[in-house]
Design brief:
The complex is a heterodimer of chains A (155) and B (195).
Chain A: H1 2-27, H2 37-43, H3 48-51, H4 54-80, H5 83-101, H6 107-124, H7 128-154
Chain B: H1 2-16, H2 19-40, H3 45-62, H4 72-90, H5 111-118, H6 123-138, H7 143-154, H8 159-166, H9 170-190
Helix pairs in contact in B: 1-2, 2-3, 2-4, 3-4, 4-8, 7-9
Chain lengths: 155, 195
Amino acid sequence: MDERIAKREEEIVGLNDDALLANFFNEHKETIADDGFTERVLSSLPQFERAWTTEHLRLRRWRIGLNVFGTIAGVALMMYLGFFSYLWNLMQGAIVRAVAGVLHFDYDSLLVNMMLLLHRLPDLLPSPAQMVAIAAATIVLMALGVKQFARTYEN
Amino acid sequence: MQRLSDFVLISQVVTFGNERAFGQLVSAHQEAVRRFLRRLTAGDVMLADDLAQETFIRAWQHLKDFRQLSGFETWLLRIAYRVFLDEKRKVKEDSLPERPIKEGAESFEPKSFLSLKDSASSKADDRFSLRHDLDLALSTLSETERTCVVLQCVEGQSIKEIVQITGMNENTIKSHLLRGKKNLANYLRKNGYNG
């Protein structure tokens, strides 16, 4: 019982302490005007090139380059495989049918087109020789990227 | 909202090295950083401002490493704390205030708090006295207690954020806070401050 009372008293004292300190810090709140501090900091900043190392910039260029190359290669591959023209024809057909049919959407033809697409999918895939070439190019690019990362973090 | 605008400004700095965006970040957070360092250095304004400047320079150099896991201000306060510890390591131990007025605290006149409310001195004097009282009171704590109490009571940081700033264990921080707040409250009462 005594222990509980002592604990409760301690809690009350703790709460009182918190209230007292809250008042104290509130009364002693200090606001600091900039007074040219920002200007002083900006005038003493090291140059951009020194702050951002050339390694960092080179890594950034590599990342951007690889992303751009990957995107272009992906789009080119899809174009080569005739995917976009097939998709465009499919969409065009659907739009024409939707407009012509006025409020009547031709679900049968959509279904047929989807089945046709699935049926033609194996033809759209690259040949084994093309697959090997793409895989080799990917591996080379990945190896170059990993090497570049390793060199950067070593430094 | 602050976090979002910080994010936009940080992106501009990281991507383009935009100094004006960094200037806006400095301007938005200089107060918290300078105030924190003033409390750590027991009110040495010049030293605190030098350390704050060093803090922002380090922030500029390492902004690319900021992962947005914590708030930007918490990250800045962490750097400020490191800068303070580095500075402390550089100079001799007794040149920085580690309980500098421990003995003086005994003779600290209770009038000093009361006089603040009653005196008709100029505003600048009041500001100085307020700061002086605050630093006197805080200087009765150990450095770690002072750091934790300032971060929580002055800068409004949560215990988790104090963990990130100081690198101390959560339970250690809780016990520092408990002890520090108790000592500070006792000291204030002893000197005639009753809220």
